[in-house]
Write a structure and sequence with these properties.
Helix content is 27%, strand content 26%. With 224 residues, the chain is an alpha/beta fold. It has one domain: Ribonuclease Z/Hydroxyacylglutathione hydrolase-like (Metallo-beta-lactamase, Chain A, 4-Layer Sandwich), CATH 3.60.15.10. Helix 6 crosses helix 7. It is globular, with a radius of gyration of 16 Å. The termini are far apart. The model has no long low-confidence stretch (mean pLDDT 97).
């Protein structure tokens, strides 16, 4: 069942991964679960009082099976603009292939045939660009085009897989699932230093951290 984290934010429980629903200037879905989550995602949205057709915008943190897998299965009901990093959108649309020389890229190649291409218009968001009340921060490392989104007015940070939440703390994305852990650390440091204050830290995996989500991000930066 979807969890209401604030008046404007819901956590959607999918297969081992979180998606989020945000009532911003428009109804916004953040990531979309595995290829087997379509029915579950529809039910979670319904718990939050939203149908798939009500979603106007999709924010993509990155291209991975468990974050983009359901997008194609939601069409034709889903008629929304998709935002994400250019590298990730090119992977999703097939204009780019994951690099096999990188261990994470090779893993993405293995799972690539399970991901259908969604019939959505994709817009690459620049570093520092805004979508509604959210500012996009390019945070490479877990994937080359990973993006985190922070809304100061909503007090929400959508962190994707830059970090994962465990026992009330945030941990950096590990080597097994990341392209470059040095970049992960650099991205965490930069986001902690430059993002506005936020109360709710929403990771792709684990329980969202609230209140003082920004303090949790500062703490992981300090531990590195």
């Amino acid at each position: 069942m979807a969890d209401a984290l604030t008046h404007d934010l819901w956590r959607l429980h999918l297969r081992g991964v979180n998606a989020y629903l945000v009532t911003d200037d428009v109804v916004t879905l953040v990531d979309a679960g595995t290829p087997w989550d379509a029915d579950r995602l529809r039910a979670e949205l319904a718990d939050a009082g939203v149908a798939v057709g009500d979603v106007d915008r999709v924010l993509l943190t990155h291209y991975d099976l468990d974050h983009v897998g359901t997008l194609a299965a939601l069409t034709p009901d889903l008629d929304a603009t998709l935002y994400g990093g250019r590298f990730e959108l090119e992977l999703l649309t097939g204009r780019r292939t994951p690099p096999w020389r990188n261990h994470k890229g090779a893993l993405q190649r293995v799972f690539g045939p399970l991901i259908d291409r969604p019939a959505l218009e994709g817009t690459a968001i620049p570093d520092g660009g805004t979508i509604g009340t959210f500012t996009a921060f390019h945070t490479p490392g877990h994937t080359p085009g990973h993006v985190a989104y922070v809304s100061e007015s909503l007090g929400v940070a959508l962190l994707g897989d830059l970090v994962r939440a465990s026992n009330g703390i945030l941990e950096p994305s590990g080597w097994v699932v990341s392209y470059d852990t040095n970049q992960v650390r650099e991205s965490i440091d930069r986001l902690a230093a430059e993002s506005p204050a936020f109360e709710v830290a929403c990771a792709g995996h684990g329980e969202p951290i609230t209140p003082d989500g920004d303090a949790a991000l500062d703490a992981v930066a300090e531990r590195q």
